[in-house]
């Protein structure tokens, strides 16, 4: 049954009020309609389906213009939700710092300072568009789902992870050079987009920031950007990268060796069995402190699921955290998986890739509002975890919100009946 905006869930009503100042009155109506529709819709989140979730909804033409033409600032909305996230987690950071100080054993000398690490995780995801031939920004991008190139859009995304709380950053559309030339816009590579994200990121005070990226983003300019900001960085490595290895027969005392060759000479005793932070499954880890060609000095981590598996299945990483032990390095690597969960939740629970919008501006705005709906659900998830005293997923949170919203609708209907509103009038009003 479509939901009247007037009986909006109280928590969502309070949440959206913070963004009213960025929108005109008509824009605000579309804004609330989209957010509520994204969370209530069970099928594909095309614009017509979003409107069907709302009673007395605005027109489809008006909603299309809201995404493609209306002058509302998507970037400022993304900045506002991140500012709100910072304000929410600052007390949590201070409490964690106090807990670490209190738990330190008393000993002579200066005590170690508290360490609270926030992860900035970056990656890209392909939104396949089989029938979207006239959409702006379309290109052929690799899809991990299909394991081949597909026609669609490429979303370059950042995620801030701090003390178990997650906050997506503003979405960015990557367009290939030929697409940029055809559409008359300046080209920016994925590396350049990620560098912009790193250089513009403002962490929560009192925390250490650690950038996590996969092997596609293992570029010196990104390491340089992180180092200049005082951030740590860990990136994936391809097996064809070169390491600086000690070599007594070389005049310099060292030589360059390809990572795959180095790994092939390792023995079973060179690996340490450790539990993977997610799930506890044992993996085998080898760590060497060295220098990677075209990067900086770092710790190289080799992770294998089993020593009997082919070496081609090994995963390689480089980390600027030079003082971390193997257990800490594994915790860095495991944290990167959060952005994969983010993409999955965005697509499955909020229809991040369901849009049918023609302009690049409109689709980025759709991504922005989908992530804003995620920000709301993440806040609710944290509240439910504290209330239920167990881990809660975004999917569970959305279903709980839908349950509350249906209850709110029943309360509103009861009030209408008590006020003498006729059944046929309510039916016509809800069915319109």
Q: Approximately how much helix is present in the residues?
A: 40-55%
Terminal Cα span: 11 Å
Strand content: 15-25%
Give me the number of helical elements.
Answer: 14
Pairing-aware structural class of the strands and helices? alpha+beta
Oligomer state equals single chain
Features of the shown structure:
single chain, 432 residues, alpha+beta, eleven-stranded mixed sheet, two-stranded parallel sheet, 15 strands, globular
Structure explained in plain terms:
By secondary structure, the protein is α+β, with helices and mostly antiparallel strands. The chain has a domain at 233-325. 44% of the residues lie in helices and 21% in strands. It has 14 helices and 15 strands. The strands form three sheets. Strands 3, 4, 5, 6, 7, 8, 9, 12, 13, 14 and 15 form an eleven-stranded mixed beta sheet that branches. Strands 1-2 form a two-stranded parallel sheet. Strand 10 (242-246) and strand 11 (254-258) form a beta hairpin. Helix 7 (190-200) runs parallel beside helix 8 (220-228). The termini are close together. The mean pLDDT is 92.
Short summary:
This protein has 432 residues and is α+β, with helices and mostly antiparallel strands. It has 14 helices and 15 strands.
Question: How does the SSE layout of this entry go?
Answer:
Layout: E1 3-4, H1 10-17, H2 25-40, H3 47-52, E2 54-55, H4 60-68, H5 74-103, E3 117-128, E4 139-143, E5 148-162, E6 165-168, E7 172-174, H6 177-183, H7 190-200, E8 208-213, H8 220-228, E9 232-237, E10 242-246, E11 254-258, H9 259-264, E12 272-275, E13 282-291, E14 297-304, E15 315-319, H10 326-335, H11 337-350, H12 360-388, H13 394-418, H14 423-431
Parallel strand pairs: 1-2, 3-8, 8-9
Antiparallel strand pairs: 3-5, 4-5, 5-6, 5-7, 9-15, 10-11, 12-13, 13-14, 14-15
Helix pairs in contact: 2-12, 4-12, 5-12, 7-8, 12-13
């Amino acid at each position: 049954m479509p939901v009247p905006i007037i009986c909006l869930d109280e928590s969502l009503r309070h949440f959206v009020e913070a963004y009213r100042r960025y929108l005109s009155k008509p824009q605000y109506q579309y804004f609330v309609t989209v957010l509520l529709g994204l969370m209530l819709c069970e099928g594909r989140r095309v614009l017509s389906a979003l409107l069907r979730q709302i009673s007395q909804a605005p027109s489809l033409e008006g909603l299309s213009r809201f995404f493609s033409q209306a002058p509302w600032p998507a970037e400022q909305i993304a900045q506002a939700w991140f500012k709100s996230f910072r304000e929410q987690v600052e007390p949590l950071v201070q409490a964690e710092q106090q807990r670490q100080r209190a738990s330190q054993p008393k000993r002579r000398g200066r005590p170690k300072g508290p360490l609270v690490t926030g992860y900035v995780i970056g990656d890209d995801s392909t939104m396949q568009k089989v029938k979207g031939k006239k959409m702006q920004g379309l290109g052929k991008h690799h899809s991990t789902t299909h394991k081949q190139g597909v026609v669609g859009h490429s979303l370059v995304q950042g995620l801030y992870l701090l003390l178990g709380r997650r906050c997506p950053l503003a979405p960015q559309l990557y367009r290939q050079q030929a697409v940029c030339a055809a559409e008359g816009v300046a080209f920016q590579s994925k590396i350049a987009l990620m560098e912009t994200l790193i250089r513009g990121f403002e962490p929560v005070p009192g925390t250490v920031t650690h950038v996590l990226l996969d092997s596609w983003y293992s570029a010196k300019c990104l390491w340089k950007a992180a180092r200049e900001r005082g951030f740590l960085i860990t990136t994936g490595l391809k097996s064809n990268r070169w390491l600086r290895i000690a070599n007594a027969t070389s005049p310099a005392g060292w030589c360059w060796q390809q990572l795959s060759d180095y790994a092939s000479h390792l023995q079973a005793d060179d690996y340490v069995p450790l539990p993977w932070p997610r799930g506890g499954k044992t993996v085998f880890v080898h760590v060497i402190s060295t220098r990677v060609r075209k990067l900086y000095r770092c710790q190289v981590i080799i992770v294998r699921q089993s020593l009997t598996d082919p070496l081609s299945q090994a995963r390689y990483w480089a980390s600027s955290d030079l003082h971390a032990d193997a257990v800490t390095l594994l915790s860095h690597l495991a944290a990167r998986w959060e952005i994969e969960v983010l993409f999955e939740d965005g697509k499955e629970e909020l229809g991040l890739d369901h849009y049918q919008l023609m302009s690049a501006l409109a689709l980025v705005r759709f991504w922005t509002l989908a992530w804003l709906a995620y920000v709301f659900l993440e806040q609710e998830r944290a509240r439910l975890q504290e209330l239920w005293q167990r881990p809660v997923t975004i999917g569970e949170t959305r279903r709980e919100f839908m349950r509350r919203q249906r209850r709110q609708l029943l309360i509103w209907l009861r009030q209408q009946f008590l006020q003498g509103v006729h059944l046929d009038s309510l039916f016509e009003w809800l069915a319109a």
